[in-house]
Design goal:
Strand content: 15-25%
CATH topology of the largest domain: Uridine Diphospho-n-acetylenolpyruvylglucosamine Reductase, domain 3
CATH architecture of the largest domain: 2-Layer Sandwich
Structural class: alpha+beta
Shape: globular
């Protein structure tokens, strides 16, 4: 049967394509994982379109892989079994704004920056900031977080309700509009982070926040990573309203200086941001300065105006691309573990030493306020020795985290890169997860090979 022809009849001809360039664009993400072509790419415009595609795919057992912008880092949206790449980019509308409830309903294809542009007119913003201008559907699918999670929480904390099309074609809602509920199982938590393996998200109702009256950013340098991480713990213990708390090692600072023409001191550095009212924030920042001074902070520089703050965070957000552009011909591998904060200093030192042993170019950065850090490593995929060293490095970092009560992925998701660690991390609970997968997707058509 000509599935492309039949699906074109169900939708419209321009929504279904087998164009080679389009298939190649949907065969990869930002990761080092090997690309794989889908058989076709489909662009739904509404929930009913998704239903039609899923019903057809379930009947003929065709794999369906939801696709946002391809900014994922563990092969989450690569269609390794072929089938349909379901590109959600045409479903990118704001459906409802409820400013007095601090809620917004959106379609999954809208990006983070598009959403915040719309919210600004209401004096609101969406807090989750993974760096990339990812789609909200993709961010929910991987339970994204990023720089602001220390203050506002991760993606799962922002979701009030999801509209999801299951493998059966049935449409369900996983929550409601209220701030809390004790009714039933927590389906929001089940779907957020499921990476399209249980269903396709077609609408999201999200919590939003008021734009702070005053925002201040700072850059603090320390003599060693241990004291930088100790400062993190002390700042959190003092209940100072820190909104971002990023560790950037000296190797990363060097790359920032090259790529952004800066002259930051080559020392372990904390990038910080504080949200609050002007009077309160002034007191909190003075207290913070005392704390970091006691811990050997060598220098602290504050940025108050919008332009300077934007430049500081642009340097941090673009760090991965700075490494990529600075090492042409190589691909970036990003590790992504999270540990209890008391284990973080040791983990960062372990990661740095492990990178040095491999001889690979790499650096360590992290959202240290919630114990999440990344090793950024440049790898020549044509060099089997380098690839093997990178894989061994990733495994060392993951096992170190798991042995200390951490997780193999803090925010990038499992995809294909972290599948092999699921049994070790979750034990018998992993079998429960697999049984849920089988119940909701008995034919295994939803993003096969990911997580399970």
């Amino acid at each position: 049967m000509d599935h492309v022809k039949e699906l074109s009849k169900l939708l419209t001809e321009d929504q279904v394509t087998t164009n080679q360039t389009m298939r190649e664009q949907h065969s990869r993400d930002e990761s080092y994982h090997i690309p794989s072509l889908p058989d076709m790419v489909i662009f739904p415009k509404r929930t009913e379109d998704v239903q039609k595609v899923i019903n057809y795919a379930n009947t003929y057992e065709i794999p369906v892989v939801p696709f946002g912008l391809g900014s994922s880092l563990e092969g989450n949206a690569i269609p390794y079994k072929g089938g349909i790449s379901l590109d959600m980019s045409l479903m990118n509308q704001v459906l409802e704004v409820r400013p007095n409830d601090f809620l917004i309903k959106v379609q999954p294809g809208i990006t983070r920056l598009q959403l915040n542009k719309e919210l600004k007119k209401y004096g609101l913003f969406f807090t989750v900031d993974p760096g990339a201008d990812a789609t909200l559907g993709g961010m929910a699918a991987t339970n994204a977080s990023g720089t602001t999670s220390v203050r506002y929480g991760i993606m799962r904390d922002q979701v009030r309700d999801l509209e999801v099309v299951l493998a059966s074609g049935e449409v369900i809602h996983t929550g409601g509009l209220s701030a809390k509920s004790s009714s039933g199982l927590h389906l929001n938590g089940l779907m957020v982070g499921s990476e399209g393996t249980l269903g396709v998200i077609t609408e999201l109702t999200l919590k939003v926040h008021g734009i702070p009256e005053c925002i201040m950013a700072a850059r603090a340098t320390f003599p060693d990573p241990g004291r930088a991480v100790e400062a993190v713990t002390s700042i959190l213990a003092a209940n100072i309203p820190v909104a971002r708390m990023e560790f950037v090692d000296e190797h990363s600072i060097q790359q920032v200086n090259i790529a952004n023409e800066r002259n930051y001191e080559l020392k372990p550095t904390l990038f910080l941001e504080f949200h609050g009212n002007e009077a309160g924030l002034k007191q909190d920042v003075e207290f913070m300065k005392e704390i970091v001074s006691d811990l050997g902070c060598m220098d602290i520089h504050f940025e108050m105006d919008t332009k300077s703050r934007a430049e500081l965070w642009e340097a941090r957000h673009n760090l991965a691309y700075s490494f990529i552009h600075g090492h042409p011909g190589k691909k970036l591998m990003v590790t992504d573990v999270s540990l209890p904060i008391t284990e973080l200093a040791g983990a960062i030192l372990h990661a740095r030493a492990s990178i040095e042993k491999t001889g690979l170019v790499g650096a360590v950065v992290g959202h240290v306020g919630d114990g999440n850090y990344h090793a950024l490593v440049m790898v020549d995929l044509a060099d089997e020795t380098e690839v093997e060293k990178a894989k061994e490095l990733n495994e060392l970092i993951v096992l170190y985290a798991l042995e200390r009560g951490g997780t193999c992925t803090g925010e990038h998701g499992v995809g294909v890169g972290k599948v092999k660690y699921q049994q070790k991390e979750h034990g018998a609970a992993y079998e429960v997860m697999k049984s849920i997968k089988h119940t909701l997707d008995p034919k295994g058509i939803m993003n096969p090979g990911k997580i399970f």
